[in-house]
Design a protein that fits this description.
10 helices
């Protein structure tokens, strides 16, 4: 039993084969998936998907890369988060890779999401790229630990992981942990306490070995879990059980079907 804690089934590469994507999940022992919002304009499709499938949950948020889209305020996020299938706020955070000028609007948006998460009592899904210091700083300033959440698709250092863990956050590993050149990341996977581990695909991106370079899908989270298990010297069954427990404990509004 596995859960894909972060994917984008609503993206064109996957939603066009919705039935097949969901069937292959089940065939690979992946019982549930969290379909994560990246902008409000596409949220209706995510909610409709979650309404069609008891084993698919949703989040509400605006990705830090998205500049030309509806800018949410706290009240808007809170209203949307009231939907019964919405279990988290995000994905949110900071990304200076594509926005090298470190725009203030990203930081304002991130603060808005953190405040909405605290008010809604729903955990945060946080994205950080080339921005770890500012990400942790804003998390501290806005008391993100009160909401809790997950550092998704983690690729940062052990030091950043330690800071996030100190704030009460979970660490989620994607297919990158299976890549040949990712030994430093596997060291982080060994370091993270078992009760804070999650696994994800970030599908349709970042397919794990042996599917690297192909379109990713939630079924492949099994290979992510295998890579984490190998790094930690544990069995797949142990990692699957622990990460599934962690998912439902963190995303407390998600009900296992």
């Amino acid at each position: 039993m596995l859960v894909d804690s972060h994917c984008h089934i609503d993206f064109p590469d996957l939603i066009e084969d919705e039935a097949g994507v969901l069937a292959r999940m089940v065939d690979n022992g992946v019982t549930h998936a969290l379909c994560v919002s990246v902008k409000l304009e596409t949220l209706p499709g995510i909610l409709a998907l979650a309404e069609r499938h008891a084993n698919v949950f949703a989040s509400v948020g605006v990705h830090p890369d998205n500049a030309d889209c509806e800018e949410p305020d706290e009240e808007r996020l809170l209203a949307l988060a009231a939907h019964p299938k919405v279990v988290a706020i995000g994905e949110t955070g900071l990304d200076y890779y594509w926005h090298k000028d470190a725009p203030e609007w990203q930081r304002v948006r991130f603060r808005t999401h953190i405040r909405a998460a605290r008010r809604s009592a729903k955990p945060l899904i946080i994205h950080t790229r080339d921005s770890a210091a500012d990400t942790i700083r804003l998390m501290r300033e806005e008391d993100a630990g009160s909401a809790g959440g997950v550092m998704h698709c983690f690729t940062e250092t052990r030091e950043v992981a330690e800071q996030a863990l100190d704030l009460g956050f979970h660490i989620s590993f994607s297919g990158i942990v299976s890549f040949k050149n990712a030994e430093a990341l596997r060291d982080v996977a060994r370091y993270v306490p078992a009760e804070r581990l999650l696994v994800e695909t970030d599908a349709p991106y970042l397919a794990p070995v042996p599917y690297r370079g192909k379109t990713n899908q939630p079924a492949y989270v099994r290979h992510v879990a295998e890579a984490v298990a190998a790094a930690r010297g544990e069995t797949l069954a142990a990692i699957a059980e622990r990460t599934t427990q962690n998912f439902f404990r963190l995303f407390k509004d998600a009900q296992p079907s």
